[in-house]
Structure formats: structure tokens, C-alpha cells
Design brief:
Blueprint (H helix, E strand, L loop, with lengths): L23 H4 L9 H16 L8 H14 L13 E5 L5 H16 L7 E5 L11 E2 L9 E3 L5 E3 L4 H9 L16 E4 L5 E4 L8 E3 L14 E3 L3 E2 L3 E4 L2 E3 L4 E2 L2 E2 H8 L9 H8 L10 H19 L4 E2 L1 H17 L8 H4 L23 E3 L6
Parallel strand pairs: 1-2, 14-15
Antiparallel strand pairs: 2-13, 3-6, 4-5, 6-7, 8-9, 10-13, 11-12, 11-16
Helix pairs in contact: 6-8, 7-8
Bound molecules: arginine.
């Protein structure tokens, strides 16, 4: 066991499927979308043999790519699945050292940002294959995130979602900027086979951000709000062919409400509605003046406008909803049932204006898929 205070418990890759999970046969059925006939049988056999022996499935690049795209298609919490076929999968299963992973993550950011024309990318690092080994983990929830500093008076500067991560980064030796701000980009923390976390400060210049301004309210820019361009989820497990890829960061592009109606608006996140309502001169003493709703609307107008004038691709919740309905139609035409969670498919703003508001939905157990995994810290 390492002496490192943040070292994780070894988390072995699940071997034989547990009760209630999919059978190995079901886990491998996605290969039918890649191969047929004799070749299909031999690829299924090779994967079955490996997984039953406790190894990871020996997927080739085409199979891994297909697994990535199908995991996106299967993921019950994503409204943006119309574009599942466009996922660019980077096969970095040969990487397990934090330094090498760091370099590769920098390339992921550049490829995904693509000068503002965001591309959906997933980079797959080595899965774990022996019970005694630590799983490779990226400890950040997303590759971009803002520090949350706890003040002595209990208030938080920055993103309250990230206070624990920020404390840990500082304990591991991260030096925040001299003047701590509300939008300080966090370093990356990566652990390899030893389980011991390595800290990688990232150059703010390497991460694209968008300053938020409003098309009509000139004062909006003075609030100093910004957000990063690309959401790269880095703490979920990519599960395919009976194998857990514990480090497989992936990204899409933002839908405006994720930032404007949640990250910047939630009372337990940046909580900006009161400040915006005040600048708008709204009557905050009276809930029924709908000051929250009016401030929320203008904040969301500002987010969409700012990404647009910065040349960074983002979708709005009406377009995303229409895309989702098309995805459902395409899936139906292929005789596939869509797995979906209502609370994630319905946008947090004006939900009743979208067709999925009155649509029954069900989450199904699927493979490949992206799964939550226990925190690395
Ligand atoms: N909701 C998260 C955020 O606001 C990002 C989740 C992934 N979103 C996406 N559009 N791919 O940062």
C-alpha cells in the first residue's frame, strides 16, 4: 500500500457480470454492429475468453470506436445524442503514466476545442486488469473547472461545487493565483498504477474561455462573469465489452442552460440571479414579480450571445430538444428503444415549451455506456 495520503483503494475491474447486470453475451452484442458471420463469432470468442480470465477485452480500434459511439447513444442522461456517430475516439490504451496522460489530455483539449467548432472527442486510457493494481483515474470531475475557496467567514469565492477538490489540490501543492478570483482554473490531478495523485498545473492560456456579456445590457460585462468553452467529463467510467475504462474523458459542446440556468444560477453554485435582478432594477421583495425568472432569462440570453460572438459553438435548449426528438425517431426507425431519464432530457428552463416534457421515458441497463464511479478522493 502506498504511503500517499490520497491514495485510493484498489478498485478491481468487475470480472464476471454481477447479478442484475448484463450477461457477457449482452455486453458483447454491440460487436454485431461492427462485424458479421464468422468474424463476429471469432471476435466475440476472443473477448469472452479474455474477460473470463480477468483481462480486458482485446478490442481493436474499430471496435473501440464503435463502443464509444454506442455508449453515447445509450447514455440515458444526454440530450445531445443525435450526433452519436460523430464521436472521435482516441485510442490511448497504451498510456498509464500520469505525465503521459497529461500530455495526451492537452491534445484532447485542442482537438475538442477545434478553434471554437467544438468536436466530440473521447480519449481512452488503459483499463485495469489485475486485482492488485490501482485503476487509472483523473480526479477532476471535468478537465475545466473553477476553484471554490472557502473563506474564514464561511463564504465561498468561486464555484462551490469544487471546494473539496480545491482544498485537496492546495494540500497536494497547488498554488492558487496571488489574488484568488471567482474563475480560477483548477489544476489536473491524475493517478496511475501506483494510485498516488500527481498534480499538473495548467496554463490558463491553454483553456478557451468566454467572457459573458449581454446584447443590450451594457453593464452585464462589468459583472466579470466567464465560462469555459468545452465541458470534458473526466471522472466517469466508460464501460464496454465487460471492461471498465476508469479514465476515458469525453466531451460534447454546451447547451446554454447548463451554464445559464444551472452553473451560474443555482443558489448553491454561483447564485447570480439576485445580483442580476438588482442591476435590472427588479422588485426582489415580491416573489410574484417573477424577478428570478426575468433575471434567469436575461442571463441565458447573455450566455448564448457571448458564445456566439466569441465563435464558440453552443446549442440552445429548443434546438437541442428538436435534435433529441429526431434522435428518438431515428432510433425507433432502427427498432431500438431509447433509454432516457426524464429529469435530464427536459431542460431546466421553459421545460413545458419542449416536446419531451410530456413524453414517457425509461432508463434501461445498457452496454456500452458511461457510468458513475466512486470518487477518486
Ligand atoms: N452540465 C455540465 C456543466 O455544466 C456538463 C455536462 C456535459 N455537458 C455537455 N454538453 N456535454 O459543466
Amino acid at each position: 500500500m502506498s504511503e500517499c495520503p490520497y491514495s485510493q483503494d484498489p478498485s478491481p475491474t468487475p470480472r464476471k457480470p454481477e447479478a442484475g447486470c448484463l450477461s457477457l453475451e449482452e455486453e458483447l452484442s454491440f460487436l454485431e454492429e461492427v462485424h458479421s458471420g464468422k468474424q463476429l463469432e471469432s471476435r466475440k470468442k476472443a473477448c469472452t475468453d479474455a474477460v473470463l480470465q480477468g483481462a480486458s477485452a482485446p478490442l481493436n480500434f474499430d471496435e473501440l470506436s464503435a463502443a464509444g459511439a454506442i455508449a453515447w447513444r445509450n447514455h440515458a442522461r444526454c440530450i445531445g445524442r443525435l450526433y452519436w456517430k460523430s464521436l472521435l475516439v482516441r485510442d490511448h490504451r497504451d498510456l498509464e503514466e500520469p505525465e503521459a496522460i497529461y500530455e495526451s489530455l492537452c491534445d484532447h483539449m485542442t482537438l475538442a476545442y477545434n478553434s471554437g467548432k467544438i468536436r466530440s472527442v473521447m480519449t481512452v486510457y488503459a483499463p485495469s486488469n489485475k486485482d492488485s493494481e490501482h485503476a487509472i483515474r483523473i480526479w477532476n470531475h471535468q478537465l475545466c473547472g473553477y476553484a471554490g475557496y472557502r473563506q474564514a467567514d464561511g463564504r465561498i469565492t468561486g464555484d462551490p461545487k469544487n471546494t473539496e477538490f480545491t482544498d485537496m489540490a492546495i494540500e497536494l501543492g497547488w498554488e492558487p493565483p496571488k489574488e484568488r478570483g471567482s474563475f480560477d482554473l483548477l489544476p489536473w490531478i491524475i493517478s496511475g498504477r501506483s494510485g498516488c495523485p500527481k498534480l499538473f498545473p495548467i496554463a490558463a492560456a491553454a483553456i478557451a474561455e468566454v467572457p459573458i456579456q449581454h446584447p443590450e445590457f451594457k453593464w452585464f460585462a462589468d459583472l466579470g462573469i466567464r465560462w469555459y468553452a468545452v465541458p470534458v467529463i473526466s471522472d466517469m467510467c466508460f464501460h464496454a465489452a465487460g471492461t471498465d475504462y476508469t479514465a476515458a474523458p469525453f466531451n460534447g459542446w454546451y447547451m446554454g442552460t447548463e451554464i445559464g440556468a444551472r452553473n451560474l444560477a443555482d443558489s448553491y453554485r454561483y447564485n447570480l440571479l439576485p445580483a442580476i435582478a438588482k442591476r435590472m432594477g427588479l422588485d426582489k421583495r415580491n416573489e410574484s414579480s417573477l424577478w428570478k425568472d426575468r433575471a434567469l432569462l436575461e442571463l441565458n440570453v447573455a450566455v448564448l450571445h457571448s458564445f456566439q460572438i466569441s465563435g464558440v459553438h453552443m446549442t440552445d435548449h429548443h434546438t437541442a430538444s428538436r435534435d433529441f426528438m429526431r434522435f428518438c425517431q431515428n432510433e425507433e426507425a432502427q427498432d431500438r428503444k431509447v433509454s432516457a431519464q426524464w429529469s435530464w432530457m427536459v431542460p431546466p428552463m421553459s421545460p413545458s415549451t419542449t416536446p419531451q416534457y410530456i413524453m414517457p421515458m425509461q432508463k434501461q441497463t445498457r452496454s456500452p455506456d458511461f457510468k458513475l464511479q466512486s470518487r477518486a478522493y
